[in-house]
Write the structure tokens for this entry.
Amino acid sequence: MIPDTISAIVPTIGRADALAALLEALASQTRRPDEVIIADGSDGTEVRAVAANGQWRRRGLPVRYLHVHPPNAVRQRQAAIEAATGSLLLLLDDDVVPESNCVAALADCLRSHMAVGVSADFSNQQWPPPTTLWRWYLRWVHRITGSMWQGRVIGPLLRFGYHPMPVDPSPMEWLGSGNSLVRRDAYDRAGGFSDFFLHRSTLNEDVDLGLKLGRQGRLLLCPAARMAHTHAPGGRASVRVLAEDDLYNRYVILRRTMRHSRFRALTQITIYFVVETLSGLAASARHLRSTGFGDRLVGRVRALMRIAGAAPGIKTL
């Protein structure tokens, strides 16, 4: 049997320091990736300089650099994957720091459980459970009670993790695009990342990919594989743009990937808009500050307006 090779896929935009920390962590893995492909959407030279540092190859970590312009998270990943040679794709954000055994644990979980994709857990953050309003929605609309929501994608693309974290590998219906290992052949059969996302932030592209990969085989959360997520501040879109992308992209995934009718997709997106708006309003009142509520509301309203205009032209696949 030919051993699997691992290509790490890293889109980035102007986060040279965070990228250097990631490459340091990958060079220190007990099972190093066979190659790292960096798809850079920034205009400066800082990221290129980090990628070109000769220490990575001396430490057994070949790094390849691609410049992808204009920046777009999906197009950057697509360009890196097209250039990749590995049979396994290690999908990483540029601001994660895997623990030393993380890649080995992901590869072992993928192989031993015959999965098509596995995700690592985060060591410095918890998966958020549903809010009270979403619990009511899950209970009365979907008849989901107790902990049945864990690892699921439900209704208007509500993606839930685990709380508390399981000890053993557990089924997931979605993957994180910044902390996962995927079989290349399953990725290709699933059609890869979709290209219909709004703006450059492409929110929910990981849910979309996970839903498509789930048709090819098992997806698992692997608690033994852990990494920190530093949430590097550079290169982020505004709160308003992110909120618009989030709502609009959910709608398009429901239509194109889930193949829901226009009426069903609009109904689910409207429910999402109402519940998230009420939750944000409650949080603002509780903390006595807006916490970005106004910008999120404007972004979501823009998304609804865009959906109303775009809906007749969207074709189900």
